[in-house]
Amino acid sequence: MAATVLLLAVAAPCVGLAQAPALETAVKATYLYKFAAFVEWPASAFETPSAPAKLCIAGEDPFGLVLAQAIRGQMIGDHPIALVHLDRVEKGAPCHILYVAPSRGQTAAEALDKVRGEPILTITDAAADPAARGLIDFVLKDNHVRFRIDARAAGQAGLVVSSKLLSLAVAP
Question: Does domain 2-168 have CATH number 3.40.50?
Answer without folding.
Answer: yes
